[in-house]
Amino acid sequence: MSNKLAKQIARATLASIGAGPLEFVLPHVAGPDGAVIPAFDVLGSEHRMALVGEGGTGKTTLMHAFARATAGSYLAGILDTRAPILVHGARHDLSDGIAAVLRDLEIDVSPRELARLLDSDAIVLLVDGVDEMPDGRLGAFRIANILHQYPRLAAVVATRPGAFGAELSALASYTLAPFSKDQVAALIRTFGLGNGDAAERFLAFMRRADLPDAARNPPLAKLLWEASDGGSAPFVSTADLFDDLLDEGLRQATGSREAGLSAEQLLALLGEVAVTYHVSGWSTAPAADIPLELPGERLMIGHARMVEQLVATRFVRVDDGQLSFVHRSFVEFMVARRLHASPSRLIEALELGETSVEEILRFAAGLADEVAPMVELLLQKDRVLDAVTCLRFARVENDALSAYVAVRLGGHIGQGFIRRLIQQVPAALDYVQDAGEALGLHDKLLGLLDDACDMSRPNHERGKRFEGFTEALFDGPFEPVQRNFRSEHGELDLIMEVRGGAKFWDYWGPDIFVECKNLSRAVEAHQVHTFISKVEVPRLKLGFLVSVNGFTEDAYAAFRNVARGENRPLLVPISGDQIRQMLQRRGPIELFFKDRIRDVRYDRKYPARTSV
After folding, report:
1. What are the residues whose beta carbons fall under 8 Å from the beta carbon of 250, sequence distance 6 or more?
2. Which residues form the NACHT domain (predicted)?
3. Domains of the chain with CATH codes
4. Within 10 Å of residue 164's Cβ, how many Cβ atoms?
5. pTM for this one?
6. Are the C-beta atoms of 240 and 212 separated by less than 8 Å?
7. Eight-state DSSP code of residue 604
8. Alpha-carbon gap, residue 289 to 447, rounded angstroms
9. Residues 6+ apart with CB under 8 A from 458
């Protein structure tokens, strides 16, 4: 009877998880002794083990692949194989035992039959995502009790590092290892890059230290490869790379003439859906049942069309009516993207969702212009290690805040540890030198800006110096092509060629116009309209208007009207105050330009008029 029931479970498991990817890249794992071996060698021989890996490193893909392999082998009658019972932590916390998992497979079994089955050599219990259970610690206790009750039951339990070590300490621990050369070669074959220069670049790309762990997932690796322009673009941060993916996805999803959500609405909706999934602990849900709505806004688009646009972003997918994010990292990024500007809402969502806290904070810190409000609120809640995470992944350094957090951390773990930690700073000498060069550039630009704003100079001299400053500021993602170009439509201060390595810039090239205004007053609407005509005539896609003393409300309205027009260029206002704040914070300059573009594209609130 047990053999017949086990075969029924194996067939139902195969039906529930489907065929899987056409080409599966077999990962390796590092064992307790540090030796790196193919994952299937361990899965097929270790009686009970924990599979440990960061979010997005391929644990679920590996668990599904092993479930397919072992179910197929068991049904084929191969000796010493077992039928898998696959438990998804996001769906089952084992509060109702394994019987509830089998009921989902439409298998009804009596308690006596189930006990006999689990106490045989016919079953391997696969638990994917203990950390995704509503109460992971309680779930880990339940797993430990089941294994204690049935000593002959084999098990593989997948979880993130550092989670539930005490509860699962009886399991041999294996950690997913970084890509090996043969795995990268398999990915190259998957992506059809052949053996030429592209394949060599991809090989180097996959070995980069700044590549996020999530890139071990083949589909996400492909997206990141494309977003980085074939690996040639440097990463400012993982958050920046995901932001580029998002921009491209929104462009694809809103590019048709069919009625649908605007880019701004779709961005907000994607964030709301991600927050719902995170707080609810979902990995998947029926697409027809998901509330697609924005707080305080009535969306006049049908549910099916909104789902279609969400899928077009490539951040979500729908399989058999079930909507899920393509990768868990996308949920984490979109939660951070939606809430990073409101630290209180962000931390509330983290407390409700409990899992992925560090990953979401990494993204949030990489997106925020200033992490101080986030860090201060975390410290108020005595979440010192979370505050450390924010500082570690922040766009800009804040020495005073870092020192304060170090004191708080020392209070928790002892000042002796902090002293020993400080002694390790010389090992980071190369990083410190690189950071010093970057800080020197910011100081140089601040000096040029102060010089251009010196009111003791004649107007024409200040104008000339401000153009020189603006050229120096833009020199990075852009390269000067011509200065003070005279056309029949007026003089153009700067023509710049887009040379930013990230795929984000491909859409806006090859050339842009930059207009410089070093006036004693804010730029007015009629001056914006003049600039509009200069950009529209040669049919450029992007122009920047940089004004020392900002813009009037009517001028900002002119920018908004152009941004909402179909087939019109994107005109981006940048005020002197925004520039000065970024330089004083030592912010990444390329990200500064990207953020100003996104301010206009997604119709964010424009800054009030201020002066430098």
Report:
1. 263, 266, 267, 313
2. 48-190
3. 2-176 (3.40.50.300), 445-601 (3.40.1350.10)
4. 22
5. 0.63
6. no
7. P
8. 57
9. none
